[in-house]
Amino acid sequence: MSAPTTTGDLVRTRESSEEKRQNERVQKSGGQSVKRSHSRKIILGSLIPVVVLAIWQLGSVNHWIDPMMFPAPSKIVATFLELIRSGELWYHLQISILRALVGFLIGGGLGLGFGLFVGMSKNAEDVIDPTVQMLRTIPLLAITPLFILWFGFGELSKILLIAMGAFFPLYVNSFLGVRNVDSRLFDVARVLEFSKLNQMVRLVLPAAMPNVLLGLRLSISVAWLVLVVAELMGSDQGVGYLIQDARSFMRTEVVFIGIFLFAAVGKLTDSLVRILEKRLLSWQDSYKG
Question: Which residue range is the domain that position 33 belongs to?
Fold first, then answer.
């Protein structure tokens, strides 16, 4: 009786080992396809910048374009490395990042809080939303001189200006996120006798998360835009000041370095939010193109 049992065990063992090998092959092929897809995405995304830089380099070296207005990318890279070695670039960059971060945390935090509060209360919407929508339409460039007049050229005016710019995208998208929640979910919450806090944490925030994360991305972008305005209007530190000072002395390559820095840091923060978006919204089965 032991021989059939032993033979059956051997057959099952072989089948399970074959299944394991097949699963390993599938996982390897899947990992390789993901890597190929990622590499393809990087190559396609780099195509236009590489072509533009190559044409720019040729045009500047051969004097097809004015080297004073458009210095060669090789000269920009050399100046960039020189600024890194001297420590000047990091000094100005960290000040700009700190300003943008503090302004964003203040404005974005208030925008998120007010957006959720107004979205949850019709009375709050009637009282607060008209004023916020009116203030939202005022161009920030128009009130920048007033901020400088009221708060001076110090850090306070810059941080408050950045906070004001970061407030509105998160407010609007948080408000819309709450209002787009299925009303039947609130009926279920009432049946389960959820408190207001439980409704917010377990119902509203998860359902409104796509809008909130969109507001987060827009808010960070606006914070960087307003930072440039604030530093160009009046500052003695930061990347905006570096650009303004270089413009005064016709150091065009430093101006381009400042612009590229803003673009690179802005893209980096946006990519970080997109990674967060993928993790928090992995349950969504949305169209990928």
Answer: 1-65
Residue 4 has pLDDT above 60, yes or no: no
The answer to whether 107 and 162 have CB atoms below 8 angstroms apart is yes
Counted domains in the chain: 2
Burial of 122 (0-12, 13-18, 19+ CB in 10 A): exposed
DSSP per residue over 167-196, as a string?
Answer: HHHHHHHHHHHHHTS-HHHHHHHHHTT--H
- Picking from 65, 82, 106, the residue at the C-terminal end of a domain is 65
- Cα–Cα distances (Å) from 195 to 54, 65, 115, 164, 177, in that order, read 61, 67, 19, 32, 20
**Angle at the Cα of 125 from the Cα atoms of 122 and 131, rounded to 5 degrees:** 165
- Residues near 188 by Cβ (< 8 Å), separated by ≥ 6? none
pLDDT at residue 286 is higher than 70: no
Amino acid at 162: I
Q: Which tokens go with 86?
A: 């001297």
Is 289 within the bounds of a domain? no
Return the ∠ at Cα 281 (arms to 169 and 209), rounded to 5°.
35
How far, in Å, CA of 108 to CA of 226, rounded? Answer: 13
Measured over the CA atoms of residue 239, residue 244, residue 249 and residue 253, the dihedral's sign is: positive
> Any idea what the CATH number is for the domain that residue 152 is in?
1.10.3720.10
Q: What pLDDT, in 10s, does the model give residues 211-260?
A: 899 999 999 989 988 888 888 777 788 888 888 888 888 888 999 999 88
d(CA 156, CA 167): 16
Q: What pLDDT does 21 receive?
A: 65
Q: Measure CA 275 to chain center.
A: 10
Angle at 265 between CA 262 and CA 270, to 5 degrees: 120
Q: What is the DSSP letter of 67?
A: T
Q: Tell me if residue 263 falls in helix, strand or coil.
A: helix
